[in-house]
Amino acid sequence: MADETTGLPVPRSTISLELIATIGCADCDGPEQITPTAMALFDDGRLAVLDRYAPFVRIFAPDGEFLRSFGSPGQGPGELGNDVGGMYFAGVFLLPWPSGELSVLELMPAVVETFSAGGKPLWQQALELPMAAPAAQAFAPGTGTYFRHSYLPLSDLPDVIERCVIDPAGDAECGQLMTATELTGTPPEGARAGLAAAATPQGDLVVADLGTYRLWVLNAEGEVVRQFGRDIPPPPKSQEELEAERAANRQRRERGREEREIDPDRPHISPAGVQVDGAGRVWTRTMRYTTDSTVFDVFDDSGIFLHEISLPVPTLLDPNQITPFVAVGDRLAAIEPRPDGSARINVYRIVTN
Q1: Helix or strand or coil: residue 306?
Q2: 34, 35, 45, 125: most buried, per Cβ within 10 A?
Q3: 27 φ, ψ to 5°?
Q4: Could you tell me the strand order of the sheet in which 343-352 lies?
Q5: Are both 98 and 178 inside the same structural domain?
Q6: CA of residue 240 relative to chain centroid, distance
Q7: Do residues 116 and 244 both lie within one domain?
């Protein structure tokens, strides 16, 4: 990128991640023992964590200190989900409000459950929406705008991208922006389109196609205001990954089921692999390297690729982790799976030089 006046290259900012807190442990019995499904960062740096084995939300201070938990099993006011085989399907997304309230989008049934900053139940509202693809949801707290890539299970109706305006006082109005095919130009492969989503601080929506590495920025009316991406080949799967898929096909064949086509390549971007920080930079969690590190591609707010940032933590994805990482303001939090099956959350400060 060159200066329009001098024609000389404009130096780009250097971005790095500085670890400031770690939450979670494998050998404790207290609230620090977490199995995170979804998480959210408040503007003041507090972290909310929804656990898959416990029907409540835990709140941690910016330094990682446990503050409080709230919620209980059930489907009434203040209750989060039901116990299904030892797992609580308490919610599919967390919406942190600037005033400190927290909304939990529940899966069964589809309702918004909102709590005060101290954990008191405030209101509950059912949503007349089809099921959301967990990996493609986004929330812009400043405008109360919630986006989701939605579909009707067991139907041939097209995937849609929806926009809801949610009032923390207890109201939600939703509408369809477009179908996924209208945006990407291609029909979904298999059951659903492979999309990830994030919201900008201004309330726009960023949608990424995991396979093609194309990204779109949509305004509140659903108009595409920017489009960008990376023109790089898809990452090939390892021999171990391919053999695991072949073994799964052999098991399907033995059970008389149809085999699945094996793609030799991985997607470019991981599921739920897009976030936007407070400076408007777009972070994508890539799939092109080994499972012993996490690598992000970072774009500026105009879509220009800046550079990649690597963290020495695993990229192994747990399908129950709806938000493997989140970014708000100058902070980024990422779930780190541990070899013993536990997990912890590392909170970083985004440093710009």
Answers
A1: strand
A2: 34
A3: -115, 30
A4: 15-23, 343-352, 331-337, 325-328
A5: yes
A6: 27
A7: no
- Spatial distance between the Cα atoms of 270 and 92, rounded to a whole number of angstroms: 18
- Residue 148's pLDDT is 85
Return the percentage of the chain with pLDDT > 90, whole number: 33
Check if the beta carbon of residue 350 is closer than 8 Å to that of residue 17.
yes
Asked whether 321 and 300 are in contact (CB, 8 A), the reply is: no
The amino acid present at 278, given as its one-letter code, is G
The CATH number covering residue 46 comes to: 2.120.10.30
Count other Cβ atoms within 10 Å, centred on residue 203: 19
Q: Is residue 174 domain-resident? A: yes
Q: Taking the complete model, does pTM exceed 0.85, yes or no?
A: yes
Task: Single out the residue of 82, 89, 192 nearest to residue 148, CA to CA.
Answer: 192
Q: Which residues pair with 147 in a beta bridge?
A: 138, 163
Judge whether residue 36 has pLDDT over 80. Answer: yes
Q: Which two tokens stand for residue 274?
A: 């897009």
Closest CA to 328 of 40, 15, 114, 16: 40
Q: Which helix (H) or strand (E) holds 116?
A: none
Write the CB contacts of 324 (distance below 8 Å, at least 6 apart in sequence): 270, 271, 272, 273, 285, 317, 318, 334, 335
- Read off φ and ψ for residue 21, nearest 5 degrees: -160, 150
Expressed as residue numbers, the domain containing 205 is 15-227+312-352
What is the amino acid identity at position 281?
Answer: R
* pLDDT grade for 322, boundaries at 50, 70 and 90: confident
Q: Which two tokens stand for residue 312?
A: 């020495």
Of 131, 141, 138, 241, nearest to 192 by C-alpha is 131
User: Please, which residues have CB within 8 angstroms of residue 220's CB and are 6 or more apart in sequence?
Assistant: 143, 145, 163, 203, 204
248 phi, psi to nearest 5 deg: -65, -40
CA 311 to chain centre: 18
pLDDT at 188: 65
**What is the token pair recorded at 219?**
């305004």
Site of tokens 């995991």: 210
Residues 84, 82: Cα–Cα separation, whole Å: 6
